[in-house]
Recover the amino acids of this structure.
């Protein structure tokens, strides 16, 4: 366990559902309370002071993404970024996995309804994600983009972003949803033209936090269809005319976001930067490996990739002849919180998860009838 990192949290030891929601740190709670308290005592400088959290969060997110604040914009969630990307496409075919989380499908469906793009659905093999061979076989001359999740929400399969970038070439866009990876997994984020992240899971920033990072290629290619009044040049000049979209990632801004949420996001990102993604990733990988051994010893079937280099943070499994709901009840009796599916369960620990949590999982699984 990364003790210095874990000291910032009050999350119960048995919480293993970070792929669904990451309980925030005391730093985030304090930043939120501080911003609310300041807003409650508002004076002539309060709003401007609170708004500075936007730049702090953008700069921190940009550093972690390997880019700069000019190419980064805060968003309330990952879905908003995906809709920006989908509706900004002019025409052509977009490759996307049929098995991906629904938030990665509806933007392309809606863009297709408007006649802007044609989604072509990829079908990865069970337990696999979108790999370079699958994409290479599906590419056609009219393919303009590939949309993938950096880490698959079901199995934790880690996409090879560098290989995907090489396969699709320089003229097509690579759109990456990194909500299940960013901040806990080192990946070549610079390979993505559009990188969207929500902060409520592994970043542990709370809801209504997130960002997008755009490459120069994306800025040149995507139309700013959803640009709002804060996404234009000179947004503070109210001259009753339409202003041009901002030349940088700010063009994806629709309106001001909550400065309270921005302050919380800045605090969460700062915690990741101080403890480093490398150290957090190492701690998470150790917990996942321990949990995998527990599941196997209990006769369970691990559905996540066996190779640690091909998975990240998530361990999905099934117990033959055991209803996942009954397995979940056994886990809950030991204080374990997991994601329950109709055919499987998902365990997702964090760097704050102590080693003894694996013993609780083992006790729960051993309590099930043979």
């Amino acid at each position: 366990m990364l003790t210095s990192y874990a000291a910032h949290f009050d999350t119960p030891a048995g919480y293993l559902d970070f792929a669904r929601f990451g309980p925030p740190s005391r730093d985030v709670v304090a930043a939120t309370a501080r911003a609310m308290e300041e807003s409650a005592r508002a004076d002539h400088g309060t709003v401007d002071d609170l708004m500075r959290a936007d730049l702090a969060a953008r700069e921190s997110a940009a550093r972690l993404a390997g880019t700069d604040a000019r190419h980064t914009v805060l968003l309330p969630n990952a879905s908003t970024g995906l809709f920006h990307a989908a509706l900004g496409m002019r025409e052509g075919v977009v490759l996307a996995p049929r098995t991906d989380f629904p938030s990665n499908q509806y933007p392309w469906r809606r863009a297709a309804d408007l006649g802007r793009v044609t989604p072509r659905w990829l079908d990865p093999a069970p337990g696999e994600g979108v790999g370079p061979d699958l994409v290479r076989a599906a590419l056609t001359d009219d393919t303009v983009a590939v949309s993938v999740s950096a880490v698959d929400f079901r199995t934790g399969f880690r996409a090879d972003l560098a290989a995907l970038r090489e396969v699709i070439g320089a003229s097509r866009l690579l759109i990456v949803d990194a909500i299940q990876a960013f901040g806990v997994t080192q990946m070549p984020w610079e390979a993505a033209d559009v990188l969207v992240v929500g902060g409520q899971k592994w970043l542990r920033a709370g809801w209504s936090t997130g960002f997008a990072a755009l490459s120069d290629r994306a800025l040149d290619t995507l139309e700013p269809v959803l640009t709002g009044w804060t996404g234009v040049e000179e947004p503070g000049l109210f001259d009753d005319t339409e202003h041009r979209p901002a030349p940088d990632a700010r063009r994806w801004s629709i309106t001001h976001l909550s400065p309270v949420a921005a302050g919380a996001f800045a605090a969460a990102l700062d915690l990741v930067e101080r403890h480093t993604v490398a150290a957090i990733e190492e701690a998470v990988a150790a917990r996942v490996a321990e949990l995998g051994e527990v599941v196997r010893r209990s006769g369970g079937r691990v559905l996540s990739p066996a190779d640690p280099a091909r998975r990240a943070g998530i361990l999905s499994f099934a117990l033959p002849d055991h209803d996942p709901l009954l397995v979940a009840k056994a886990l809950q009796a030991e204080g374990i919180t997991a994601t329950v599916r109709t055919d499987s369960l998902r365990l997702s620990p964090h760097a704050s998860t102590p080693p003894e949590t694996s013993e609780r999982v083992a006790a729960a699984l051993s309590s099930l009838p043979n």
